[in-house]
Specification:
Rossmann fold; alpha/beta; single chain; 2 domains
Length: 364
């Protein structure tokens, strides 16, 4: 007798592509290969192409996400759920928790999973009381620090409705391209030291600190940024205050070949003021790159309180510069194989997917 195909709907209507969206893609790709039917809900004209060639994946687009009181969106989500009859619905973004969980409850979906990647205050309100007490939604987080924070600071969570699954990544297989075009076009001398940074250009990521960090470093140190989106910072205006530094900070924009980016940098810097467990740190570790990170909770956990990288206080420009100098001058070294073992042992892609499948489809 043929087993009925299990289905899941991932709700991810966002305009910016980042770590959360990337993990939705990874989970969708994995589940589709295992013959689950996956439906992805996206904003129209955003990231349809990233999912379009996956077997067993259906892309459904919406023109807008709507606010908490937009019952037209709830009706549309209910119609979608009625059409596909999923066993699980997954809301990738906190601002969609209410709309998705309400629609799922009204359509009697067995399993509702809500994702949270950063520390956020969950207010005491009727809305969240319904979501967690009446609708019985569960929350997935990517770090023990975030899990502990929710257990300590919210009345809605317990160990039966809150789950931690580490983000996972595969060790890279692609070889370095000697004349990789994005780096080659910068015309940076090969004897210079490249500090990589990546992510949206916003205050939360701390990129306004880059020229202050760089002015404390030798002339052969350059910073190379990869990423687009979240343009809350006017980097042109910020760099105008540091004309000499502007020649040593380079913006690549969107990078398709992030493996090449990590292979061409000498170390990776995370200068965030607020962060969950950043995917870019996993990528840096997987390439065996030395890391300097601020003490955001996810980084402290990932780097095991400084065993696998240098940790600094948030906004401490001098400490970040000193860390870069220490690695540049080889006063502090991290063996690449030792860093990669951190991924293989604790943050592997296989572990992430096995745990994800068990959460999304219990008793499969």
């Amino acid at each position: 007798m043929k087993t009925k195909t299990k289905k899941i709907i991932f709700f991810c209507p966002t305009k910016n592509w980042g770590g959360i969206e990337k993990n939705v893609l990874l989970r969708a790709r994995h589940l589709s290969k295992k013959d689950y039917h996956v439906v992805i809900v996206l904003l129209k004209n955003t990231f349809e192409d990233k999912f379009s060639n996956l077997e067993n994946v259906t892309v459904h687009t919406v023109t807008k996400r709507g606010g908490d009181l937009n019952f037209a969106v709830v009706r549309n989500y209910m119609q979608l759920i009625q059409k596909f009859k999923p066993f699980t619905v997954f809301a990738a973004l906190k601002r969609d928790w209410w709309l998705v969980s309400l629609a799922a409850h009204l359509k009697k979906v067995p399993n509702t999973i809500l994702y949270l990647g950063n520390i956020r205050k969950i207010r005491t309100s009727l809305k969240y009381r319904l979501v967690f007490k009446t609708f019985k939604a569960k929350v997935l987080v990517n770090s023990d620090s975030l899990k502990s924070d929710l257990l300590q600071n919210s009345i809605y969570f317990n160990r039966k409705n809150l789950f931690r699954i580490y983000n996972g990544i595969e060790l890279p297989q692609t070889k370095e391209i000697a004349d990789w075009k994005p780096i080659k076009e910068l015309n940076i001398s090969t004897d210079n030291f490249l500090v990589g940074v990546a992510g949206w250009l916003n205050y939360r990521k701390g990129f306004d600190l880059l020229p202050k960090i760089l002015e404390k470093l030798p002339q052969n140190v350059h910073i190379v940024h990869a990423g687009t989106g979240g343009f809350e910072l006017d980097m042109t205006e910020i760099l105008a205050q540091y004309p000499e530094m502007s020649e040593r900070i380079h913006f690549l924009g969107h990078v398709n070949e992030m493996e090449q980016f990590f292979q061409h940098i000498d170390l990776f810097l995370l200068c965030s003021r607020e962060e969950g467990m950043a995917n870019v740190l996993l990528e840096a570790l997987s390439h065996g790159k030395s890391i300097i990170s601020t003490k955001v909770p996810g980084s402290e956990e990932l780097l095991d309180n400084g065993i696998f990288g240098i940790l600094t206080e948030i906004d401490d420009v001098s400490a970040m510069a000193n860390g870069i100098n220490a690695i540049l001058e080889r006063k502090i070294t991290f063996d690449p194989e030792f860093l990669q073992q951190r991924i293989a042992q604790t943050f592997s892609f296989e572990n992430m997917m096995n745990n994800t499948e068990s959460l999304l489809f219990p008793n499969k």
